[in-house]
């Protein structure tokens, strides 16, 4: 035999009642439940979208799960946007190198950004000094090393900068949409916001 407590939303073996009472942990609202009730509500999985709660008689029952607070949904969406931004930067930027080979330029913020900035500064210094025919080296994601002129390196690093700025603008635009949907209490609109479904507006296209 089993007992069920609605306040604790838990089952208690009837044969251990004396032990619980001695320990001061036996709930005052514990009621007897039959084996079938225990099998369904104690051992079985709840139906989709349902949770176990005590009903008006103190017996276990299934009820719809409470809706996630809209603030929690918004926080989760913002976290997903940040994660997608980081993943996209980590994947790098597709770029056609001067020799016509398509490769990926690494754009990880914590590893590659400083390297690209250093290359951009060096390339501009060489251009200023008139060393336009100088040769610079760049290792792409494929691990292949390419040789570029200062002008080619400037074009590449500018493209990488624009790539990152575009992704940041996209993340800000999505977060603004999250804030607007949260303020409007529009759960459907909030849950529909995803990184892949973003459509730039005319100002950011």
Automatic annotation (TrEMBL):
Give the matching InterPro entries. DUF4376 (IPR025484)
Tell me the protein's name: DUF4376 domain-containing protein
Q: Tell me which Pfam families the record gives.
A: DUF4376 (PF14301)
The record places domain DUF4376 at 75-185
